[in-house]
Amino acid sequence: PLGQTMSRNYVYPQQATQDNFKFGVPTKFSEATAKEVIFHSKVPLQDDPKAKQLYLKSHKNYDAGEQKNRNYNWKVDPTKHVFGKSQKMILEENKIVLHPDFVENK
């Protein structure tokens, strides 16, 4: 209806109109609080390797500095191999720049 709220014509039971009326099933109190349910601190993940691997797989949450292991079958050892192009190291580069004739005479 234009200009007024819509009336849905609900028919409520008589006990629902009383001030002390409560709807639903009362909740049973548990031993854990809401904080403990969400942030459970009783079982640290570092103690159980299976739980830590499952958490890594589901959340991709690695520790600081921890190398990702994707279980590839490589011909190289990923802990020792370095990827990318290597540069030739120039030792004492500042000496070469400041005294080029000194290096040429060697």
Helix content percent band: 25-40%
Tally of extended strands?
Answer: 0
Instruction: Summarize the helix and strand pattern as letters.
Output: HHHH
| Computed Rg | 35 Å
Shape descriptor: elongated
Can you count the helices?
A: 4
Characterize the largest beta sheet: strand count, sense, and whether it forms a barrel: none
Q: What fraction of the residues are assigned to beta strands by DSSP?
A: under 5%
Question: Averaged pLDDT, please?
Answer: 79
Compile the SSE list and pairings.
Blueprint: H1 34-38, H2 49-59, H3 93-98, H4 100-104
Give an overview of the whole structure.
With 106 residues, the protein is mostly helical. It is 25% helix and 0% strand. The longest helix has 11 residues, at 49-59. The model has no long low-confidence stretch (mean pLDDT 79).
